């Protein structure tokens, strides 16, 4: 049920909305080249709204302490305003060479992480406006970023279909998660830090176990199923450590594969890949797998 009347100020698309931590304010990123801010209880714009930019705004967020509003625009700039007055903290930062799709402030509000079309994330010092480091690992646009509530990790989702977990202090990549078959549109770490939740244009939502992710490494995988945690399917094939072909997955199954460290898969179907008790069968003995089929939807 809708609460109150629609907030009608935009004359063009708006890309993203965000509540302030105390839910008093709602901000929206607009193709109108502005950020609009409303008083939620009154349904009225803030006295300083809109916050004008020179180009369409694609993402907006409040700082965890509620004192700042950050936004990223079409040409790669980051804007930062004081939330109570709408005054700019400093001139917009030229953060990226192209569109900023995601922006988030660290739990202590001292840093900003931005993700953009250039396939990078960049971390900025809020007080000085200086870039601290660049996170490189994705090969296509970064669509979503999120900090853990303890500030230890950053997670990012990309059009390259992967999710990356990073050390937020050093910028070191910790793990690449494969599973989605299309653009990863949104990622978030749960408040307890135990799970990563991701959604994708492949029509699925996945929940990943952070402890399981951190305990895994490419050097300790021992099974065909574990190989799925480290490599994306290549033309439908699961590849081994030396890029050998291990298992071909039919096209209709590829969007619905559920293996650890993915704890939960929310989708129309769920395909589980398991190994028989005798292990996998490859080479001249591959036909031995014929005797290991079950009536379930398992490969």
- Please state the average pLDDT score: 87
Span of the ends, CA to CA: 43 Å
Strand content: 35-45%
In total, how many beta strands? Answer: 23
User: Roughly how many Å is the radius of gyration?
Assistant: 22 Å
Please describe what this structure looks like:
By secondary structure, the chain is mostly beta strands. It has a domain at 14-219: YVTN repeat-like/Quinoprotein amine dehydrogenase (Methylamine Dehydrogenase, Chain H, 7 Propeller), CATH 2.130.10. It is 3% helix and 39% strand. Strands 1, 2, 3, 4 and 5 form a five-stranded antiparallel beta sheet that branches. The two termini are 43 Å apart. The model is unreliable at 292-299 (pLDDT under 50).
In short:
This protein is mostly beta strands and 299 residues long. It has 2 helices and 23 strands. The model is unreliable at 292-299 (pLDDT under 50).
